[in-house]
């Protein structure tokens, strides 16, 4: 039998990985991977964090309404939702010292339904609030025993659930004194509250992951990154046109000890609410998400102003029911996140090294600007991803990938469709690459996917 030259690509592995991933339901509980870079489930399968903000879900919805929301999250492939146990006032001390069992029963029913949908629920025990203006001021008056007792009560309530994550804090930096309204390096109580609560949650519910929810612009690693109860890092950044968002992810990636990090709150998709905040476009949301994953994050958090408060608070009300905002016509960025998750889950995304570890782009990266072409390469050189936020030429060093040649595809982050790149496959040399023009939304952002090609003989 004669030898017949064949072209075997790693593409079939990617296709297999896609179907395998979607055929296997997540097996809770979650834990940190052995290399400390991402989350895995009970069977060690990588868990892609695509989170949605539902801050007042537990206080502003009935169970049936919560199910409508969670059904939509599951359909759009969100894997985590953020929700507070207590978000707003009245800030009654007895809610902490003598919690309402009925309130917790409704939350438990919601968590149980989320588990059926393969969704983890990230519970904030009590929203401390920016500048401590929510529950933060009250907590400064509580004793260590009262705080630890409350955290233990919470953990005991949810210990039967293996899809729970805990977030200590909530838009709050521990070095901020809510009484003086000043940041104070010597303010001890904030750190004590965080550690008392974090350690108590871990003692009573050790298999649940725990993190700290810091204020925007301040990564949680800055405060509790070395604490044993804090399993992974959280970054919040609200300026949609600032490069600091991926720099904070890079900072956390290089932090020791090594822990996963993710962008846990970004600028909300915001179009017609009629308030003073700048409108955040779907393009800005997509850009932030792809920047985060190619900078070393294990996931991303989307948010929709007008949805997360479920029409409950007067300052945030919009002139339509929150259920309408689940629709792709009114919240297109929310649906673009589904394409974002599906693209990465087709790849072995957890094996990617971010741009600052193994930079694919040698010219035209424009790091530090909103035109940054970010990239990430698989550790074995089998594939790479680069995000172009706008139409421009960037030079790729394809010698950093394995194989004999490199196949290239464009991914439309709006429609989820793939297109061949002109000139592909390429030799493993420096190649200037320019996106094809407008995507299906009319924007000019595209994702470049590169696959190693091996020449083998059968």
Helical stretch tally? 12
The biggest beta sheet is recorded as: 8 strands, antiparallel
**Cα distance, first to last residue?**
10 Å
What's the total count of β strands?
24
Into which percent range does the helicity of residues fall? 25-40%
What brief labels describe this structure?
single chain; 458 residues; alpha/beta; Immunoglobulin-like; 2 domains; six-stranded parallel sheet
Q: Can you tell me about this structure?
A:
With 458 residues, the chain is α/β, with parallel strands linked by helices. It has two domains: 25-350, Alpha-Beta Barrel (TIM Barrel); 352-457, Immunoglobulin-like. It has twelve helices and 24 strands. The chain has helices spanning 11-23, 57-60, 63-75, 93-97, 101-116, 136-139, 144-158, 189-204, 221-224, 244-253, 282-294, 332-346, and strands at 5-9, 31-32, 39-40, 46-47, 49-53, 80-84, 120-124, 164-169, 176-177, 182-183, 209-213, 233-236, 261-265, 299-302, 352-354, 361-363, 374-378, 383-388, 394-397, 405-411, 418-420, 426-427, 430-433, 446-457. A hairpin with a 5-residue loop joins strand 3 (39-40) and strand 4. Helix 3 runs parallel beside helix 5 and helix 11 runs parallel beside helix 12 (332-346). The relative contact order is 0.12. Residues 1-23 have low confidence and may be disordered.
